[in-house]
């Protein structure tokens, strides 16, 4: 019988591509011979917009790079501008920032947990994870008024102080989160169907991961204990104790476990930071329009998806001459063809889910 | 390892080449474009440097020239270096480093797409973010498009006589 390979377009409108990603698949029956990602469907020229905005006006736009962890983007951008213009940050603001960044990491990982399992056909965990995520959204809403695009972190601090009742709400959330995590594990981690869909699937070799610029939990799933919070600490992370979870085999299940353990570490960080938040100012007073001196600056942070880097070239005016946003998902997605090649078409969803990409950040 | 120590090692390995410290950036090293493949390969393979991680590649339109930036990082040693190559703005071309760091593949496609830099030796150089039939390279400062409307308070292009970023390093 004569057989031949055929080409299939997966996406751009596909429920499990997390946005608009198109994969051109070359298939031999159900076996994937080649997968070519096509990106750019969400390109909004945000880096070009930066050249036409003042430094302050660009903060809300950083929310739109990666809408599931806007706090991290705000922070990455503000750290870069603060380094460039040498703006001091009061200690209270540093702790508030770490609290928000870690809360956002939890919210982002809960979203990943729900959506990856939805992709694999499990609908119940989604409801469980959103129960806790909703509490985080409420906390963000009472802090800065927004549930998705926060625009909260500012040069020299944060836009407003912690609201009354914040501590009580946080304690309630933390106890709910600590009760929730074992429930997720009971539901999913040892589930035989889940194991069959994730063990030994989409193996990412550590050498390939480094060569392809993979970062964040996807890199740590391959056994490389690299985390910017430890390697090049920023803000008040050196004063907080936490571990870097790593995987061993680099398969989908390992990347899953790393993110699950990271949530436990984030809870630990938040508990320590809550106890340490000092009294004092929450922001350095600055003029509305700042003019950083001529020069270049680069700063990077550990966002929920990996290394987020911001590179700014200033010409001494009130607008950046060039702003480059190094998005972790961009490099993480480029490794996808290596993961799915030789596997089955149904495993593509598990691989995309385990890389936890977000397309607005890839396309910028 | 600091930028100056890395530069010393490079100068010993490549005598007679025009490698200089970048005044704008504390991690920057300016190298002539034709030397990029050799210098990059050395940075990756020399055990004391071990630049195994390509963080990103991007470009900056300096009006007089187009500057391509390779940001390298060593996960083992924890040091950074930024390689800067200044290209002819009318016909920008540079050798690809995809063979050294596969991560460069998409980053070079992005720089090609947005700035028009041709990377020789790239396995698959085509637009990545913009549609295939797009004309022009929008991140160039003089790019115009009917839908691109400048804000009224925006200063005209080439606002400073001198190209930006010269002198007064702030980082």
Just give the CATH class of chain A.
Mainly Alpha
Q: Outline of chain B, from the CA principal axes?
A: globular
Strand tally of chain A, please? Answer: 8
Low-confidence residue ranges of chain B: 157-171
Total DSSP helices of chain A: 15
Strand order of the largest sheet of chain B: 1-2-5-4-3
pLDDT averaged over residues of chain B? 82
CATH topology of chain A: Cytochrome-c3 Hydrogenase, chain B
SSE string of chain B: HEEHEEEEHE
Q: Please, how many helices of chain B?
A: 3
Supply database-style keywords.
heterodimer; A: 364 residues; alpha+beta; Cytochrome-c3 Hydrogenase, chain B; 3-stranded antiparallel sheet; 15 helices; B: 171 residues; alpha/beta; Beta Polymerase, domain 2; 5-stranded mixed sheet; two-stranded parallel sheet
Characterize the structure shown.
The complex is a heterodimer of chains A (364) and B (171). Chain A has helices at residues 46-50, 59-62, 70-85, 91-119, 124-144, 166-189, 192-198, 206-211, 217-220, 228-231, 252-276, 328-334, 336-340, 347-355, 359-363; strands spanning 6-10, 22-28, 31-38, 153-154, 157-158, 295-303, 306-314, 320-326. Chain A is α+β, with helices and mostly antiparallel strands and 364 residues long. In chain A, the strands form 3 sheets. In chain A, strands 1-2-3 form a 3-stranded antiparallel β-sheet. Chain A has a 3-stranded antiparallel β-sheet with strand order 6-7-8. Chain A is globular, with a radius of gyration of 21 Å. Chain B contains 3 helices and 7 strands. In chain B, the strands form 2 sheets. A 5-stranded mixed β-sheet of chain B has the order 1-2-5-4-3. In chain B, strands 6-7 form a two-stranded parallel ribbon. In chain B, 19% of the residues lie in helices and 21% in strands. At the A-B interface, helix 3, helix 8, strand 6, strand 7 and strand 8 of A face strand 3 and helix 3 of B.
């Amino acid at each position: 019988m004569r057989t031949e390979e055929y080409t299939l377009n997966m996406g751009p409108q596909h429920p499990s591509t997390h946005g608009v990603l198109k994969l051109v698949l070359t298939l031999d029956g159900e076996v994937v011979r080649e997968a070519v990602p096509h990106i750019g469907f969400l390109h909004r020229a945000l880096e070009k917009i930066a050249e036409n905005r003042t430094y302050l006006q660009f903060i809300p736009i950083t929310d739109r790079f990666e809408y599931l962890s806007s706090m991290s983007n705000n922070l990455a951008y503000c750290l870069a501008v603060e380094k460039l213009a040498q703006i001091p940050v009061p200690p209270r603001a540093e702790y508030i920032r770490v609290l928000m960044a870690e809360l956002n990491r939890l919210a982002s990982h809960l979203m990943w947990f729900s959506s990856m399992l939805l992709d694999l056909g499990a609908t119940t965990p989604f409801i469980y994870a959103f129960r806790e995520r909703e509490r985080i959204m409420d906390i963000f809403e009472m802090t800065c008024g927004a549930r998705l695009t926060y625009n909260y972190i500012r040069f020299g601090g944060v836009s407003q102080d912690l609201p009354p009742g914040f501590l009580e709400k946080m304690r309630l959330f933390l106890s709910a989160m600590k009760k929730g995590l074992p429930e997720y594990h009971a539901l999913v981690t040892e589930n035989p169907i889940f194991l069959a869909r994730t063990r030994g699937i989409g193996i990412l070799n550590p050498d390939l991961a480094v060569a392809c610029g993979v970062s964040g939990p996807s890199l740590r799933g391959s056994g490389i204990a690299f985390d910017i919070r430890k390697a090049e600490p920023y803000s008040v992370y050196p004063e907080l104790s936490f571990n870097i979870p790593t995987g061993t085999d680099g398969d989908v299940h390992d990347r899953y476990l790393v993110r699950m353990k990271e949530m436990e570490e984030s809870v630990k960080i938040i508990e320590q930071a809550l106890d340490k938040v000092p009294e004092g100012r929450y922001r350095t007073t600055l003029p509305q329009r700042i003019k950083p001196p001529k020069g270049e600056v680069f700063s990077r942070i550990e966002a929920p998806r990996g290394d987020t880097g911001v590179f700014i070239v200033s010409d001494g005016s009130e607008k950046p001459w060039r702003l480059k946003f190094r998005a972790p998902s961009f490099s993480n997605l480029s490794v996808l063809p290596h993961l799915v090649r030789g596997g089955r078409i149904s495993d593509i969803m598990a691989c995309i889910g385990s890389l936890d990409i977000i397309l607005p950040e890839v396309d910028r | 390892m600091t930028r100056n120590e890395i530069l010393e090692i490079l100068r010993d390995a490549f005598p007679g080449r025009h490698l200089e410290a970048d005044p704008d950036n504390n991690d920057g090293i300016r190298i002539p474009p034709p030397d990029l493949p050799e210098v990059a390969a050395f940075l990756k393979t020399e055990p004391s440097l071990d630049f195994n991680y390509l963080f990103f590649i991007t470009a900056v339109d300096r009006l007089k020239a187009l500057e391509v930036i390779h940001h390298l990082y060593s996960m083992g040693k924890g040091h950074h270096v930024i390689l800067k190559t200044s290209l002819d703005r009318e016909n920008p071309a540079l050798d690809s480093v995809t063979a050294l760091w596969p991560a460069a593949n998409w980053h070079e496609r992005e720089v090609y797409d947005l700035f028009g830099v041709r990377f020789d030796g790239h396995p698959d150089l085509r637009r990545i973010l913009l549609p295939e039939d797009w004309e022009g390279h929008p991140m160039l400062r003089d790019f115009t498009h009917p839908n691109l409307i400048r804000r009224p308070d925006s200063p005209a292009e080439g606002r400073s006589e001198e190209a930006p970023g010269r002198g007064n390093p702030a980082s």
